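Priority: low. Protein: ORM1-like protein 2. Input follows.
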Amino acid sequence: MDSFRQLALVAAMLVCALGAPVRVTETNYTEGKVLALKLNENARLLYGQVETTNEVAAVSDPPLMIRSEDNCDPDNLNVKPEVCLSRVALALKNYSRIFGDGGIFQSQNTKCNKWRANAKAVAEVTTQILEVLKEPAEPLAPMLIDNWMTEGYLCRDSVERLYSFSIITARVFSHLSSQQMNVGVAHSEVNPNTRVMNSRGIWLTYLLLTVVLHIVLLSIPFLSVPMVWTLTNVIHNLAMYLFLHTVKGTPFETPDQGKARLLTHWEQMDYGIQFTSSRKFLTISPIVLYILASFYTKYDATHFLINTSSLLSVLLPKLPQFHGVRLFGINKY
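Result:
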């Protein structure tokens, strides 16, 4: 019966591992840079063509623009470009709607339609940049053109906003492209440690290694089943503690100005964001192993104390309150 339970456990762990994340193709920032420069060129062309009116635009607070909290500065782009790129993608979708089919530059009832050809070129480039960012193509509903939207001042206002946005977008992609093509870095991530636990099959590999360790220990004749489960738990947690919570820095060159040098792998994971899928998986797995070890050792006091101490050694460092904390200065440098 014990053998059957262990085989069932292995099968369940393998099934759970199928839910591991699949690594998607990395964004080609170089292609994005080319398209962003093309968008800037088209925006500059429109900026020079659309007349400036004497009227003041009715829009006082633009709904979509790059703000300081969008983390588009170089330091944040080096560490976590997703926040800025998500804002860029949102603005691109907005401009695709304004300058594309059904927008104010394509409608016959507005004063903007005399620049419809150049506006269509802008919409095509925004769509291409969204494809580079792997944003799903969404059908855009035609804009409801109100009376105030037919006025000429809105044409100039939209073009000015587009031109300013295109400059920032070109700078963002230029920076990310230069980081991606950095000499000596053969990967598109500034620090691959941030994403390695999201790679294809990494969860399955982790579970298989744990199962193999357990089977190897079971094959040793003089070890009883309770001892094997306790050893599996302790060795697993020791390896996790060493690789995730002790070793710092990266095994490769990174252009992040040495920011990862003083961080453990756990602190680098997912850019330091808490409670991601990988962090939850690596937190739950030692707990499940601890429950199994406790069950198969029949809650013996000695085994229970060893397993509990081992579990706490890998659970406490994972708490958000201990992020970057070095107790008594141990492992500070």
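The CA atoms of residues 174 and 220 lie 58 Å apart. The longest helix spans residues 153-180.
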